[in-house]
Design a protein that fits this description.
307 residues; mainly alpha; 80% helix; 0% strand; globular
């Protein structure tokens, strides 16, 4: 296996690493859905965050306290932590009662929200082609949501809020390019840990006694798998161009359908399939259009550096 990876080009290796990262994210989501059906939401998020912090400790030791405390734009950093915490809580609350594929469909709409908000928040120019793709993506969300008195449940509503929070987290990440990934991850985990502890204290469910060592292992593994997935995705983006690996994030939807069927006997409804298809198509178009425009701009500014 090692010899096989050594023969791969950096770009091909980046694709493999990205696919593995998406698989680990999907496993994390499936484990989370399994655990929140038994244990309280605050308990799951608290243990998940503690496990992630433990895994991150060796890297944090190298960064030092000053690297974690002396950060740019603290107000925006705090806002990003709030968005990420809301996103985590909404996701785990939603998967309690909704199929994985449904929830993942709403979350994959986040890049569409980012594209729609970027002119107003980031000052980026969006042409009519991308506005058309954004409109198609929103139609996909509406079809998937299937708004009616029967289908617009609290879980579906929180899925939309969670995916929007994820979009704002992505936008704030663009504005914090000078902050190290480790620092961003640390404060994001700390925010979830504190919120999980508060939720555990105020929740009527409280601390649910662990049923087995296996469940405790899964709870800890939840944070480890999530951290591993983030590391793999970051590594993939360093090995290959974003244009080659970023679209692979949509394989999450395929894994969500597979794990939903395998572990929870969930079969996606036709409205989810149609809505997801529109969201994926519009998201891919927005991504490739943005990359084409960036390359065109780079060629215009530095014609001798790019061919």
């Amino acid at each position: 296996m090692t010899a096989l990876f050594q023969r791969l080009s950096p770009s091909s290796l980046g694709v493999c690493v990205m696919l593995l990262g998406m698989l680990m994210f999907a496993l994390n989501d499936a484990m989370g859905k399994w655990l929140v059906s038994t244990y309280s939401l605050g308990q799951v998020i608290l243990i998940r965050s503690v496990a992630a912090i433990v895994i991150l400790l060796p890297i944090l030791w190298k960064v030092g306290v000053s690297g974690l405390v002396n950060i740019e734009r603290r107000g925006l950093q705090f806002a990003r932590v709030c968005f990420s915490t809301i996103e985590i809580f909404c996701f785990y609350y939603a998967v309690i009662s909704l199929p994985l594929a449904d929830v993942m469909t709403y979350w994959l709409a986040a890049p569409i929200y980012v594209a729609a908000l970027s002119p107003f928040i980031l000052g980026e120019k969006v042409g009519w082609r991308r506005w058309t793709a954004i409109a198609i993506g929103f139609v996909g969300v509406i079809i998937a949501l299937k708004p009616s008195s029967a289908s617009l449940t609290p879980a579906a509503f929180l899925s939309i809020i969670g995916s929007a929070a994820f979009a704002f987290m992505m936008i704030s990440g663009r504005q914090l390019r000078n902050t190290a990934d480790t620092t961003l991850a640390f404060w994001q985990i700390v925010g979830a840990l504190l919120a999980g502890a508060v939720a555990l204290l105020v929740s009527s469910d409280g601390w649910v006694p662990l049923e087995s060592t296996f469940d405790m292992s899964l709870l800890c593994l939840l944070g480890i798998v999530a951290m591993g997935a983030h590391v793999l995705v970051n590594r993939a983006l360093k090995l290959a161009d974003a244009a080659a690996v970023a679209p692979l994030q949509y394989t999450l939807l395929l894994w969500a359908v597979f794990f939903g069927w395998l572990f929870f006997n969930d079969i996606p409804q036709m409205s989810i399939v149609i809505g997801a298809a529109l969201i994926v198509v519009s998201g891919l178009y927005i991504f490739f259009r943005e990359n084409a425009l960036k390359r065109k701009k780079a060629i215009a500014e530095f014609p001798n550096d790019l061919v």
